[in-house]
């Protein structure tokens, strides 16, 4: 499903899955701008990851990436379309993505026990 956001000039793509069928894109579009430092659950060389809580029983991990050139962004979208079809028990599910003029968002399944890196190496203090 593709949704255009006229306000920010962005485009949201939500991949078909049982979890996503019950949600509306405006739930993401309304809550994403409200993400703050208190919602950060990780960061790295490719971006910052936030916990996005939709309601009391639904939350996602949202990775915010800086935008690149137009060519890189078209490649980004093609790659994400392919990733949306990948389903494997050892790969975190990509539920969708959002592209806007200044940033891209990746919407992933939230892993309640944290990252593999934290599990293997512990939290950095």
UniProtKB/TrEMBL annotation:
SUPFAM superfamilies: Protein kinase-like (PK-like). GO terms for molecular function: ATP binding; protein kinase activity. It comes from the Eukaryota. Residues 35-125 form the Protein kinase domain. Pfam families: PK_Tyr_Ser-Thr. ATP binds at residue 63. Keywords: ATP-binding, Glycoprotein, Leucine-rich repeat, Nucleotide-binding, Repeat. This is Protein kinase domain-containing protein. It comes from Fagus sylvatica (Beechnut).
């Amino acid at each position: 499903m593709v949704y255009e956001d006229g306000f920010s000039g962005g485009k949201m793509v939500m991949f078909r899955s049982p979890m996503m069928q019950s949600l509306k894109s405006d739930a993401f579009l309304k809550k994403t701008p409200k993400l703050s430092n208190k919602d950060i659950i990780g960061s790295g060389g490719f971006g910052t990851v936030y916990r996005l809580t939709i309601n009391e029983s639904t939350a996602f991990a949202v990775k915010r990436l800086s935008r690149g050139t137009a060519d890189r962004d078209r490649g980004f979208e093609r790659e994400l379309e392919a990733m949306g079809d990948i389903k494997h028990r050892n790969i975190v599910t990509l539920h969708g993505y959002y592209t806007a003029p200044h940033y891209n968002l990746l919407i992933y399944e939230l892993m309640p026990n944290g990252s593999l890196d934290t599990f293997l190496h512990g939290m950095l203090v």
